[in-house]
Amino acid sequence: MRADPVVTTVNLVKIYQNGGVPVPAVRGVDLRVERGEFVAIMGPSGSGKSTLIHMLGGLDPRTSGEIWLDGKRADTLGESAWALLRRKKIGFVFQFFNLVANMTVADNVELPALLAGASPREARERRERLLDALGLTGCADAAPAQLAGGEQQRVALARALANRPSLLLADEPTGNLDSRNTRDVLKLLGEVHRDGQTIIMVTHDARVASLADRVVSLLDGQIVDDGAVAAPRRRPRGTAGDVVELRG
Amino acid sequence: MGTVRASARWIRADLRARRGQAILTVLAVTGIVTALITSATLLEDGTNPWRRLFIQTKGAHVWIHTEDAPDVAALSRLPGVEQVAGPYRTAPVTLVLDGKKSPVALREATAEPPRVAAPLVREGRWLRPADGGGVVAERSFAQALGLRVGDPFPVTALSGASHPLVVVGLADSSDQGFYPEWTPGLAWTLPETLNEIEPAQGRSESVTGLRLADGEDTLPAVHGAVTLLDERIQRMSTWREVSASMELDNRLLGLLLALFGTAGLVAAALALANATGGRVLTQTRDIATLKSLGYTRGQVFAVLVTEHGALGLLGIALGLACGRLVATFTLDGLPILPLSPVPLLAITGGTAAVVLVAVALPAWRGGRTPPIPAAPAAPPRGRLSRLARLALLVRLPPALVLGTRDAFTRRTPAVLSVVGLAVPMMMITIGLGCWATLDDFLRHPERVGQAAALTVHPGRLPAEVAARLAGADPDVAAVYPGAEVSALEPEQTRSVLARALGTSAEPYPFSVVEGRMFAARGEAVAGQGLLDLLGAEIGDRVRMTVGGTPLIVHIVGRVVEPEHDGEVLSLGIDSLAAKDAVPPQFYGLVLRQGADPATVRARLLAASGEALEVRAAVNPAERLAVIRVVIVALTVVLALLALANLLTASALGLRDHALDLAVLKAMGLTPRQVAATLVTGTGLPAVLGVVAGTAAGASVVAGLIDLQGHTSGVGAGIGRTPSAPTLAIAAGTVIGAALLVALIPARRAARAQVPVTAR
């Protein structure tokens, strides 16, 4: 028997109400992500990619359609049930890192583990292992504000992975980083993926997207392209990615 | 369990980040609860020793003094009477100690203590059958005279014969108030000893106590006794008078504390709501992050209520402890009863409820924060506020216009800040008003009916000699002959003090606040307490028995009367019957401006060879001096609250406008202008709050004090509004402090490099 896909959406729709005027953000998305896949969702600003990933994590309620996580229907869950689901199954990485400013790096990383019911000792061990793996061992007691952007994003990644989620959702994880830090973070994501982690990443940077197994392109809330990326290699000149990069 | 651990980390981190504000909140709530507990203790009469004494001695509610022994059987049949104490024969004697004479009521008592109103022996022992020359003295009387067990107690009877007695014990009693508020002093001796000292029945009186089934309802028994005994009654007292005379001016203090405590609680609720709300706004992104990590709405609510509520509850717990300590320390040595559980629970539960509601409302909003951390919680933007447009119109500097605009972008926090400062400021102004009123008492004692700084009792000298000696002193401006007798009000249920001072033609300068001064025989002025007691108004004619003589008194005015709860009738000495007025019992001496009463007193004593008894008047302000301490303490608590509010407003202002700073700098504002913008944004609501609070306080303070004066019997006309310079200095100080508090973070923010990114 084949394992259930990690994420399945059926005709997923999101319509915002803007002063009484309906603004469709996502218009009938059917997406299926298998276990261990690394999917990049690409698209220009306003194409609905952030809305889509927020709906997948339950941060934003859907207007209609279905969301299935690990073979269980999730779109009908209430806000609290989604929260409980996120604790165990979903890790989030945001563009602006979103570390809790008042807490130390160690506390930030231990928080999700504690929330999911781990003992303080277990949480500490997991945190030490994660920070070690991400090269942040020395920063445990630092405040997030004392770290550089790339380091903060690595901490955020550690936090997202603290509960070994079945799905890692990354919303423009490199959007606020310079090229060197982008490379570092992407390298980490690649390593995590190689360890079997399912990842859905939103980006508008083709070079970042090229790291994924599969790129889903969104335009005006609809999937316009969905295809596997060839094995990593140097891209020939003149691809769409370069155009986007030039414009950006 | 996991959630609890995670939440505990979050709360700990957050409290660490805002340590100062958290401590301020705890301290302020502590102060308020302390004030409320202390006030309830004082108001509940737990500090009134009478309550405990009455229970311990199984006291009588009504005491009747008659010429001879009344019919006990008839008295015990009166409505509501449970038991009868006495009748006890009581003879007036004079205790002579070191040349000082003190009147004493020597009361007969058997060796076996009575079942009702038994004196409570504190030192020594009760009388024994063999104690021929022994007395048990009432303790407050003994303390005032420095008497101990075993000391001689030489008394002189009306016949002039001296009798050497010995103190065998000291006892507390709830039959009468403490000496010297209540005179004469009281001592018990065996009936045989009393017979020996005063064999003439006609020179003694009979004292009977009635213990009632319901102490609150004394009237039927009192009316019954009056009907039964009629002319034979010399005077009567009820437990209310005894209780009132033992009271330690606690009521006023209690009311003041209650007023401050309640208003402080409102201010604390505002401060807590503002702090929680402000924290929710500044932490929107962190809360959203928590939710994205898996916190539910209810858990976020619980975390916020726990954190902010815990500060309040900690304050309440500390306040309860402090309240108990304050009561113990300030009323050290008095037989006080601790606060009974009902008000204690009411205060604890009430403040806890206020704290939790104040915290829960903003926390609920915090729980509803959407879980998308990227969504910035920008303040509502839009058109310039009216105030800002006005600022623009009058061409204020740009920093001020921008600050004015910023001040009201968020309505609720702005209103909370304004009211949160206005309430403490109003209370501070009221405190200053109380202070000014006390100062006024001290500076102008004549306005509270204390024009005479000294009273001279002739003592061993003839009255005329005393008057001449007093009049001859260079610093004495006027000498008024006076006498004090008891007056029975028309229903004969209560005796009040009738004070004759000066003559109708030349009245003593009472401070008449309504109506006019008495100017003819039969005219009198009264304190508010007496008017309330009689249900009379100015202009009424009232039939009273003054010093045993029936008299129709025409009340022509109301005076400020700080003594005896205002239940005092003041009239010219020529209105009294000759037996009471000639010779005058004492003389009231009005001194020249600037004369020192102590010097004059010493001079008079020297001139008379220590024969005169010269007493200095005790200004009510001196008895109320503790109020000043209370005012200072409460002002500190209120200032803490105002400060906590300011810190919130300042933090919120910074958070809301941090993004604007970069834009402002890009537009060319200097760091100083940026700081000015931020300070204006925080300072403007502060200024508005302070001005509104000062104005509100100043407009109600005199009325409030007069209201208190009215209910306490002193009467309206004593309230003073703090002077304009005082108010200006107070308001200026607070505004200055507010701007300073706003300036420090503003300067730091203005100099910091502001990243031009979304939060």
From TrEMBL, chain A:
GO MF entries: ATP binding; ATP hydrolysis activity; transmembrane transporter activity
A Pfam family matched in the record: ABC_tran
Keyword Transferase among record annotations: no
Key words of the record: ATP-binding, Nucleotide-binding, Transport
Signal peptide boundaries: none
Domain called ABC transporter: residue spans: 7-245
Example of a GO cellular component annotation carried by this entry: membrane protein complex
Cited InterPro entries: AAA+_ATPase, ABC_transporter-like_ATP-bd, ABC_transporter-like_CS, ABC_transpr_LolD-like, MacB-like_ATP-bd, P-loop_NTPase
PANTHER family recorded: ABC TRANSPORTER ABCH.1, IMPORT ATP-BINDING PROTEIN
Protein name (Swiss-Prot/TrEMBL): ABC transporter ATP-binding protein
Organism listed in the record: Planobispora rosea
From TrEMBL, chain B:
MF (Gene Ontology): transmembrane transporter activity
Main location: membrane
InterPro entries hit by this protein: ABC3_permease_C, Macrolide_Exporter_MacB
Signal peptide location: none
GO CC list: plasma membrane
Compartments in which it is found: Cell membrane
Annotated transmembrane regions: 22-43, 252-273, 310-331, 343-364, 414-438, 629-654, 675-705, 725-744
Keyword set, alphabetical order: Cell membrane, Membrane, Transmembrane, Transmembrane helix
Protein family membership: Belongs to the ABC-4 integral membrane protein family.
Protein name: ABC3 transporter permease C-terminal domain-containing protein
UniProt organism field: Planobispora rosea
